[in-house]
Design brief:
alpha/beta; Metallo-beta-lactamase, Chain A; globular
Length: about 150
């Protein structure tokens, strides 16, 4: 076989690798188990930062990346902020703090798309995210099945 369908490689945080022409930078994120997010840079220089399960502490990464778009977990409503912290997830209030830190470092806000909203609290999270969006004067989108993101 000339080219395997799947190849496992070891990646290390802060060690950029090339995958099919995309520059991929793995970055450690705060979660209850070892977890990484990825800043992916396209051939034309556009950058996206994707992280699934993550809690507060993203601000430690902002000096290392400059994404045009962030896709990030926001699992709990603000009333469960302590639960979010203990489970190493975000709520809209914690997300807002992380985004303000990002602007302080990079000078602007990238596009934001949220994932991993708890279905039980989705309506409440959406309302609180809208408030954050209004307070920061930035659009914050919620991912949905079939939604396309163009960067």
């Amino acid at each position: 076989m000339d080219k395997p369908a799947l190849e496992y490689i070891i990646i290390e945080a802060f060690n950029q690798i090339n995958i099919e022409g995309y520059q991929v930078l793995p970055l450690p994120v705060n979660h209850t188990i070892s977890t990484v997010g990825f800043e992916i840079t396209s051939k034309d220089g556009k950058k996206i930062f994707f992280t699934g399960d993550t809690g507060p502490g993203l601000s430690a990464l902002w000096e290392h990346i400059s994404p045009d778009h962030i896709i990030v977990d926001t699992t709990f409503p603000n009333k469960l902020e302590n639960r979010a912290i203990n489970a190493a997830h975000l709520c809209p209030k914690l997300l807002k703090k992380e985004l303000i830190e990002l602007k302080n470092v990079n000078g602007n806000y990238p596009k934001i798309t949220l994932i991993h909203l708890s279905p039980r609290f989705e309506k409440e999270i959406r309302k609180e995210v809208k408030e954050v969006s209004n307070e920061l004067n930035i659009p914050i989108e919620i991912a949905s099945e079939g939604k396309e993101i163009i960067i």
